Amino acid sequence: METFILYLLIPFLGTLVLLAESLRERGETPGVRRTGKLSVGVLGVLLGILGLLGVAGILLALVAVFLDHAAAPAARSLIVGGTLLLTSCLLVGIVLMTARNAVRVGLGDDPDESITAQAKASNDSSELRLTAWCLVLVPILQLGFVGPFYLFPLIWGGVAIWTGRRSRESHFLWTLALAVENDLPLDEEVEAFAIPLWRKKRKKYFDLAGRLRDGRSLIDALELGGVLPANIVAELRAAQAAGVLPQALRAIAARQTSSLLSNRFNGSIAMTAVYVWSVLTIVFVIVTFIMYWIVPKFKEIFNDFGVEMPAWTVQAITLSDWFVSYFYLSMPLLSLPIFASIAATIVGVSGWGNLNYPLLMRWFPRWDAPGLLRGLAYAVHASRPLTDTLEEMAEHQQRRDMTERLLRMRQMIELGQPLSSALAQEGYVRPIEANALAAAEEAGNLPWALRTLAESMERTGWHRTQFWLEFLKPAAVLTVGCVVAFFVIAFFLPLVKLINELT
After folding, report:
1. pTM score above 0.85
2. Residue 329 class from Cβ within 10 Å (0-12 exposed, 13-18 middle, 19+ buried)?
C-alpha cells in the first residue's frame, strides 16, 4: 500500500496539479481558466486529506512502536527510527504544502491590481508548481545510489565541457573588449576567434558574425547568438544604453577571468560535490555487498557452533534489515545528498548566469542582484530614466521570474518609490543595504554605491562558498569514517567472540 501511494498516487496527483495550474494560467478562454482554477482547488483538498491521513499514520506508527515491546529496540534506534520518521515527515510536509498552495490558488479570490497582491499571487503559483514537481519526482529519489554508476562519466564530461565553455566565454569577452576599444571590425574579429573551434561551436560564432555584418547591433546579435550568458548580455545592454560599452566589456572580461582562476586554484564546487557524491556511493556499495554476501555466512557459522552473535553485530543487521524493509522511506533521504551534489556540480561548473530554471532560480534573487545592480549603475550614471532601463531589461530577459520582478520594480518607481525600496521589496537587497543605497542616493553617489554593493555581494558569496567547501570536506570524511568504523567493529567482534567461545 505504501509503495502504491509513493510510486503512483502521489506522482499522479502532482501531475494533475501541474496540468490544472497550466490551464488556469494559459487557458485560451476565461471558461477554461476558471475550470483550471477550480480543478486546482479540488486537487488541493484531496492532497490535504491525503496529507492529514499521512500525519495520522505517523502518529499511529509512533504509538504502536512504543506499545509493541518486540519492535521497540529496533524502531527506537536513533538511526533507523530517526531516518524513517524524518523521511515520512518530509514527504507528508511536501504533500501538505502542495495542498495549502493549491487551495490558496484555486479556491482563493483573484488578486487585485496592486503590486503587492500580484507579487504574492506569482509567488503562490510558483511555490505550487515547485512542490507539485517535487511530488511528481518522488520515485526518482529511489535512484540516488544507482544513478551515479551511469551518470559518473557524463558528469565528468559535463565538468570538462562547462569549464571549457566558461574559459571560451572569458576569451571571447576580451576579444570583444579589445575590438570595441580599438574600433576594429567586429564581424572579422568574431570570425577570427571562431576559426580554431569545433564545427558546431564555430557555426554559432559565424552566425553571430553574419548578424553583425547585416547591420545588427552587438547586443542584439549577442542576444540571439547564445554565446554569452543572459545576465552578461543584459548588463552589456544597460552599458550600451548608458554609452559605456567598452568599459563594461573590459570590466566583465576581467571579472570572468578572475572567477575562472579562483575556481581553478581555490577548489571548485564541482570537484568537491563529485568527491562527496563518489564517496557516499562507494560506501553504500560496500555496505550492500557485506549485508548480501557476508552476513548470511556469519549467521550459518554461528548457528553451527551454537554461539550467539554480539549485540553490536545484531544491531547492524537489524539496522540494515529495517532500511531494506522500508526502502521507500530510507532511500529518498539517503539520496538527497547525491542530488544535492549533482545540483551543486551544475551550478558550480556552468555558472549561475548560464542556467535557465526560473521555477527554482526565482527563490534566490540575490544571486541575480550583482548584474542587475551594475546595469542600474550604468543607467544612473548616464542620467537615464530608471523606468526605461527596467522596462528594457525586462523585455530582453529570458527568465519569466526576472521579467516579472523587473516590471514590478518599474511600477513601484513610477508610483514614487525610491530605487532602494523597490530592490528591497523584490528581495535583491537586504534592508540595511537598502538604507545604504538610500543614503548614497541623497549624497549623489548612487552609481558608486550600486557597483560597490554588487562587488560586495559577489565577494561575500564566494567566501561563503569557500567556507562551506572547507567545512563539508572534513565533515564528509568524518561521516564516512564513522560509518566504516561502525561496520568494521560490528563484523570484527563476531570473530573475536567465536575464537573466545571455542578456546
Report:
1. no
2. buried
